[in-house]
Amino acid sequence: MPLPAEFTLIAAFRPLAAPEALALQDDAAVFAPPPGRELVVSADAIVAGVHFLPEDPPDLVARKLLRVNLSDLAAMGAVPLHYLLTVSVPRATGADWFAAFARGLAEDQARYGLTLLGGDTTSTPGPVSLSATVIGHVAPGRAWRRSGAQAGDALWVTGTIGDAALGLLALRGETADPNGRLAGRYRLPQPRLGLALDGIVSAAMDVSDGLLQDAGHLARASGVGVQIEAARVPLSAAAQGRLELCLTGGDDYELLLAVPGDFGPRLQAACAQAGVPVTRIGRCVRGPARVEVRDASGERLVVGAGGWSHF
Amino acid sequence: MPLPAEFTLIAAFRPLAAPEALALQDDAAVFAPPPGRELVVSADAIVAGVHFLPEDPPDLVARKLLRVNLSDLAAMGAVPLHYLLTVSVPRATGADWFAAFARGLAEDQARYGLTLLGGDTTSTPGPVSLSATVIGHVAPGRAWRRSGAQAGDALWVTGTIGDAALGLLALRGETADPNGRLAGRYRLPQPRLGLALDGIVSAAMDVSDGLLQDAGHLARASGVGVQIEAARVPLSAAAQGRLELCLTGGDDYELLLAVPGDFGPRLQAACAQAGVPVTRIGRCVRGPARVEVRDASGERLVVGAGGWSHF
Prior knowledge:
2 copies of one chain form a homodimer.
Chain A: H1 2-13, E1 29-31, E2 38-47, H2 58-76, E3 79-89, H3 95-112, E4 115-123, E5 129-138, E6 154-158, H4 163-171, H5 181-187, E7 203-207, H6 211-222, E8 225-229, H7 243-248, E9 254-259, H8 264-273, E10 278-285, E11 291-294, E12 300-301
Parallel strand pairs in A: 3-4, 8-11
Antiparallel strand pairs in A: 2-5, 3-5, 6-9, 6-10, 7-9, 8-10, 11-12
């Protein structure tokens, strides 16, 4: 019964829609960007069995989909505005799945202040495959970039690193997670939106594919070397002693920030105001655009092979 | 080898990128909409085995992905500007697949005048799953809608109806297609962009899920009845005698237009200027928001069950 199913789906998503979505009834949405602002857009896909577990609750999957995308807006210093969705699910997927999925979207729409513009739902003979395109806005010319880091900048990171990678292990029964906190970090990233860091950071990006790999992206984009002091990387109690996993594991969705040395106190004040922990973990140096990890005595450590990737 | 693969992929897509995509190197793209214009956005997903055949050439798949999305912009009277992509492919997918896929994108970017803003590539244990979000622009308040049809309007459609559905049959070996024209209609839609119909059409939409089903959407959105004269529906020579399939088959990607009676000649002139055939197939009437099909003598025909859907 394709036609009733389509109506049911659109009815499930309609309460999420912006006025600009035209009640999800037209071929596209029409919207006017906020006057005097630039738009920031990003798209990410997540697939069952790759980015989330097939048995994860649909509302959490929906929220993860939004949040991995919102983390990209956070990394650019943008304010969320709208999103579009594509949802490919097995034919047998029931209305209850969509209701739970829409409930998760509604919760995080309200939390992060964005609304649905449109999208597409289709069947797939494979696993649940989802994508979102998020649209945010910034003051013209003020988006944070990966390429602005200078030799001499300090390198900072928000939150703790590695808990999500441990959470995935916990969900697989491969490590302890008595209160489910680690699993929660894997299932539900916390995009670091709303930090008033304009004029403070010289470069920013989100940490999604592992700190080492992502720091390498920042190093190459900026043309600087990056030195990370292993002992300074913020690890939760559960992550103590698992440095290699934490440095290479994915799904942190924290922000990696390059900050001129003088601005450390301003950075700390701005993060404190938002209730976001921030830790200085190293610095940018002249030299080859690569990442070095050093121990407390300044000796170079050799760690894994470039980080974990979804691919 | 996740890291080299990611570099290879970004290198394949970088030539497609708009300057606003920041070389696909940041977490998001930053762009300023054209001054004084509204933005029109739509997202569609296509999945191997559902919307295209697993053995279809990657360049054609890429072009179909763009074109099904561009058809939504065409339906709103919008001018294409940018797009974002998500690409989920089996792990074993080689660089040659991506090269061919990017070649198809490049060809249709040039043809339709849009550029890549960003996206995401990931692995999937399932079939190739693709999505695109397209962004276009219109003069403020001038986007065409499905909801504007009035009783008394004539109903027109571009091109021919049903060839793509026949093309899918042909690709399955279930109907003849000596010169491959029908298969071509299935594999490579022709989005009807660039028609100067502003001020002429009272409602518009694209025909993607079958003429009958889509005419029903227009009827409900506008609150009018729709009467289609079966003998007037434009069928190619290959489609003669297969009316039911043609009225319910998907993937036409033609435009369905409601046009005040007096404006027929202006519509025909505007379509002729763009080299696009257009045919009057019926009219909008007062009464229940549903679709009736009538034969040449005005008798009502009963056809299938509401059209074919991707779902």
